[in-house]
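Give me the 3D structure for Treble clef zinc finger domain-containing protein.
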Amino acid sequence: MSLKLSIEVANKIAISKGGLCLSTEYKNKRCKLQWMCGAGHVWNSSLECVRNKNTWCKKCFVFKRRLGIETANKIARKRKGECLSQEYTNSHTNLLWKCKKGHIWSASLGNVKNQKQWCPECSGNKRLSIQDAKIIAKSNGGKCLSQEYTNSRTNLLWKCKKGHIFESSMDKVKNQKQWCSECNIRKSQTKLANIIEELFGQQIIQNCKRFPWLKMRNNRRLEIDIYIPNIMLAIEYDGEQHFKPVCFGGISLEDANVEFKKTKNRDKVKNRLINKHIKLNGSDIKHFIRFDYKEKLTNRYVGAKLKELNIL
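Predicted structure for Treble clef zinc finger domain-containing protein (312 residues):
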């Protein structure tokens, strides 16, 4: 049931806005009444406008707008930039800003003032696009094969300069500097092999060594990444795919999960068979050590780890 308008209703509305209704008589909703705001400004307006259209003191409204734009200008100057907007509506409405480097963007005064937000491009929070992905891919010597960009956490399809196709998010490629996992694994494994060669001088070093006893239940042979026969040392390098699913060759995440489980199983079998061989004083392996992609491989680091096993 709608409230019947009256001078009492006008008084209640005025008081709720911090003012007064100065009129003493009410005729109809379109007849103008006299009002006074909390700042002492007096004006005429109908009860319909004040109640239904939520209007109030125009002088205060203009003052608040002017104060808002002055505040915006003050904040912008303090940050060595500019507020390009000329009008202010409220703290939630976007204004146009310009930073000291000339970047222009939109943001509300509330976000700039209270949440301390400023230029998104300078802060690295710029809204990226598929064009940005293609530029970053080119800088890595590759390509971005995707055609659409959703957000920084959604995977895109990439291709490195060696033709490996893989999935990764813009955040990982741009901010975490991650690129082709397959290239990175081969590069790191080669680096480890070179360090081993330097540390062991003239020793014979074999890569991808197989033994008749080192195999899965289906008789599939397992390989040792690096093997030094004279001291019976077996070395494994575990890339990223040993710790989590990796989409090599652009395979789906589902397939990557399957491969990850297979890799973990092979590692488990390999560890068990090698440790059993060592305990039985087997003739092929006496020492076994693993390195992984999370370790920073240097001559000093690898040497220290080998000394812990009394190998060097």
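The first helix runs from residue 7 to 16. Let me know if you want a second pass.
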